[in-house]
Write a structure and sequence with these properties.
372 residues, mainly beta, Porin, 17-stranded mixed β-sheet
Length: 372
């Protein structure tokens, strides 16, 4: 069994059009926000230590600390902004530090995200393609380097947002491949990549941390090259749609469909991966990677008692070199169940513990925030 530790997902949460939190109780209730002119919204802290138990990373600890707050205490309409930092360290000498900022400005007319960090991690590299993933052979790969991501969105019409996204990444990779049939792409082992392009978002969710209704559509087209600060020219395209529905006040049914496309010349670490925190669980991240990915999943969430909840989930996905070589024989199944514990009172941010299984593999996930 593989036990996977995801990076805390607070930074990855997208702002919502209309926020509502829930008090910690058996049945979710609407967030108690002050009425206009009667009170001010106050900041809320999130501090969460997360254990890491992983046959690749060995044992360790991750810590995330964040402050959630409105930019204007009297603004009762905008979602809360966040300032956060995180760090992790494990017994196999893997470590990472990072931090970032999300902002909601002018009554949520503008949304901004900035994230940066440095990591030195030892992970399993299986190669590229479905056959490489099915073989299950891997080499221990060291990846180290820094990353920066920034995004600025402006509301263009109703719940539609549009703006640029930029990402800069410097990676150095090394591995002992002397006795292994798995080849590490030589041209990718010391590389700086930079991508810039438009990002589109439709957001009708009722909450950014624990949606109970609404839709989140995200699409982006990123272009890498020397003109934006990189050493490699290629493109990346990604689009996803997540939907949320609540048949009762205790239940949420969530679904997500995702697609990814990386063109030729993309480095191995920018290919589409099965096993990332928003896609199929139950597979080591990167065991299945290629130039194309399609996936779909669903999740049932139930508030049980006090701060506790449970979930069951399942999905299907596939990677391939290109669209015309997709085949039903290579579809990867995923399923599992999980526990939730609410960490904060006003915003519903959960500690997530999921056990998931895939084709020939299983994994335990411990992190902050919902999978999608």
């Amino acid at each position: 069994m593989a036990i996977a530790q995801e990076s805390p997902a607070l930074w990855g949460v997208r702002p919502a059009v209309g926020e509502s939190g829930e008090l910690a109780s058996a049945a979710p209730v609407e967030q108690e926000r002050p009425k206009t002119g009667t009170a001010e919204r106050k900041p809320e802290w999130l501090i969460a230590p997360l254990p890491i138990i992983n046959p690749t990373l060995d044992n360790g600890l991750a810590v995330i600390a964040g402050l959630l707050y409105p930019v204007s205490a009297k603004d009762l309409d905008s979602p809360e902004s966040a300032t956060f930092a995180m760090g992790l360290g494990t017994s196999n000498d893997s470590w990472a530090v990072g931090g970032g900022q999300t902002l909601h400005l002018s009554g949520d007319r503008y949304r901004a995200i900035a994230i940066g960090g440095y990591a030195n991690v030892n992970i399993d590299y299986f190669g590229i393609g479905t056959d490489a993933g099915d073989a299950g052979r891997s080499i221990l790969l060291n990846q180290r380097g820094g990353a920066l991501m920034a995004q600025w969105l402006m509301r263009v019409h109703g719940p539609w947002y549009l703006g640029p996204r930029y990402r800069l990444l410097k990676v150095r990779a090394s591995a002992d491949v002397s006795d292994s049939p798995i080849a590490l792409p030589v041209d990718d082992i010391d590389l700086r990549t930079a991508l810039l392009g438009p990002s589109l978002e439709l957001d009708t969710r009722d909450d950014q941390f624990y949606p109970t209704r609404g839709t989140l559509l995200e699409a982006e087209a990123l272009f890498a090259g020397s003109g934006v600060g990189g050493q490699r020219t290629y493109q990346m395209y990604q689009a996803s749609v997540s939907n949320y529905f609540s048949p009762t006040s205790r239940q949420v049914i969530a679904s997500r469909v995702n697609s990814c496309r990386a063109t030729d010349n993309a480095p191995f670490y920018d290919l589409c991966l099965i096993g990332q925190y928003q896609d199929l669980r139950g597979y080591p991240a990167g065991q299945y990677r290629d130039h194309l990915l399609l996936s779909a999943q669903g999740e049932y969430r139930l508030s049980v008692w006090w701060r506790f909840g449970v979930t069951v989930f399942g999905g299907l996905g596939e990677v391939a070199e290109k669209l015309d070589v997709l085949t039903t024989n290579d579809i990867l199944p995923s399923g599992g169940a999980g526990l939730r514990f609410r960490l904060t009172q006003r915003n519903r941010i959960n500690l997530r513990v999921d056990y998931a299984w895939g084709r020939g593999s299983d994994a335990l996930y411990i992190t902050v925030g919902e999978a999608f």
